[in-house]
Amino acid sequence: MPEVSAASPESLPTRIGEYRVLRKLGEGATSEVFLCRDEFHDRDVAVKRVRESAVRDPVDGRYYSRFFAAEAALVGRLQHPHVVQIFDAVDGPAEQYLVMEHVPGSTLRRYCRADQLLPLELIVEIGFKCAMALGYVFRQGLIHRDIKPANLLAVESGGHLTDVKVSDFGSALNLGADITQVHRVGSLTYMSPEQLDGAALNAQSDMYALGAVLYHLVTGHPPVEGESQAAMIQGILYGSVVPPSQRRQGVEPAVDEVILRTLQKQPADRYDSWDSFANALAALITNRQVPRGNLQAVLDSERFNLLRGLDFFSRFDDVELWEVVHQARWQRFPIGHKLMRRGEKGRDFHIIAQGEVAVRRDGQTFETLDAGALVGEMAYLAPSRELRTRTADVEATDPLTTVSFTPETLGQLSLACRQRFSEAFISVLVRRLHAAHEALSHPQRIL
Ligand SMILES: Nc1ncnc2c1ncn2[C@@H]1O[C@H](COP(=O)(O)OP(=O)(O)OP(=O)(O)O)[C@@H](O)[C@H]1O
């Protein structure tokens, strides 16, 4: 399947339904994908149109219709930053198509080539994001069943891979609704033994496939190779897998361990949940078991895990936390940096992600705040302009990492996420009120 097909202009439709076609993005066995303009919503979208020949196919036509129906059933349902959103599905007499979020970039297929391999830390980061995304998908009652590099879209910017999104839910099994399981959908190269066998599937089957993709990304080879389909099947069911460290220099035993665990023949021998798999991947980064290479920047997975540990975000779910990871301004400050000065106007607020600050008035420290604490929210929440003045100096007494928002950037978050912020603000304010009340009633306690 070509990644990006340079379609001849004459074969390019001018419109698909209400969408103006800009160019062809790619094609698969059953469909073509076009970059289109959604004028109503003022955004670019990817429109996946089922080939007429596919639907008419006398043998497989009804399966193809089923693939379309499976994806169409998910319109508006999967909302996760690492899952391609499906905006609309049209099942017309003339054409069937899906309207999806456009992902600018390519797919992970190109990064499986031995001469294009990604740094290890980026592969682990990709694994972490996909594991979290598939955990979300599983909680919606779905098993993807066709996790492969071509279905993991790579967001690229300036020639670099910056993010990843799971796509193509045509083969998805809805545990709540599908009574019969069609077996052997999916790509043999990444298929779990139980999927081959026709046994019942669960989260561990997608986990195997994601592990196989990670193996391919790390080594440039799929975990099982064979000259023929029969040899492949034999290998998947009974063969042993060469540890990734034997195929790529610099791979630590801990990385071998995580990947090989997902490729165990028995689902029960793999991780027991997506969360434990994601945590094992995150630990490889935290424990420095993958080289940090030239990428000095903090990884999204580290940010995510940092936020997950903070009290302020304890009621945020994973999707909301990812929003914060992507939309907040992350800043680092040295010791001595003045985060705020008394008397200054300002409406931004910060959550301390790492480090410590002293809150001072007239040179006297009256409070120290550390990870999870909120700074500057009083001016943010103030109901009138006059009250938007900082009432204290705030200075870093430790190297500081903060997560900051202005009223404008907070306003760009989803309603659900803003709701979580309001709840977190209220609980901080109630705790403060309570402390102030205690201090007033028992002044000796705070001496
Ligand atoms: N949302 C998207 N944004 C950008 N490009 C996309 C998007 N969806 C698909 N593509 C491109 O189109 C190609 C074909 O898409 P897709 O794999 O979904 O088609 P398919 O017919 O389901 O393929 P197959 O049946 O072989 O898995 C992808 O490999 C990718 O290059």
Detailed description of the structure:
A six-stranded antiparallel beta sheet has the order 1-2-3-4-6-5. The chain has a four-stranded antiparallel beta sheet with strand order 12-19-14-17. It has three domains: 1-102, Phosphorylase Kinase, domain 1, CATH 3.30.200.20; 104-296, Transferase(Phosphotransferase) domain 1 (Transferase(Phosphotransferase), domain 1, Orthogonal Bundle), CATH 1.10.510.10; 317-414, Jelly Rolls (Sandwich). The protein has helices at 52-56, 61-72, 120-139, 193-197, 203-219, 229-238, 253-262, 274-286, 300-308, 318-327, 377-381, 407-411, 415-441, and strands at 15-16, 19-27, 31-38, 43-50, 86-91, 96-101, 105-107, 142-143, 152-157, 160-166, 173-174, 329-333, 338-340, 349-354, 356-361, 364-370, 374-375, 393-396, 400-405. By secondary structure, it is α+β, with helices and mostly antiparallel strands. The chain has 13 helices and 19 strands. Strand 1 and strand 2 (19-27) form a beta hairpin. Residues 1-7 have low confidence and may be disordered. The chain is globular. The site of adenosine-5'-triphosphate has 24 residues, from strand 2, strand 3, strand 4 and strand 6. ATP binds at residue 48. One of its GO terms (molecular function) is ATP binding.
Strand content: 15-25%
The N- to C-terminal Cα distance equals: 73 Å
**Structural class per helix/strand content?**
alpha+beta
Q: Biggest sheet: strands side by side, in what order? A: 1-2-3-4-6-5
Bound molecules: adenosine-5'-triphosphate
- The CATH architecture of the largest domain is Orthogonal Bundle
User: Which spans have pLDDT < 50 for at least 5 consecutive residues?
Assistant: 1-7
**CATH superfamily label of the largest domain:** Transferase(Phosphotransferase) domain 1
The biggest beta sheet is recorded as: 6 strands, antiparallel
CATH class of the largest domain: Mainly Alpha
Shape: globular
Return the average pLDDT rounded to an integer: 89
CATH fold naming of the largest domain: Transferase(Phosphotransferase), domain 1
The number of helices is: 13
Pfam families: cNMP_binding, Pkinase
Keywords: ATP-binding, Kinase, Nucleotide-binding, Serine/threonine-protein kinase, Transferase
GO molecular function: ATP binding; protein serine/threonine kinase activity
Protein name: Serine/threonine protein kinase
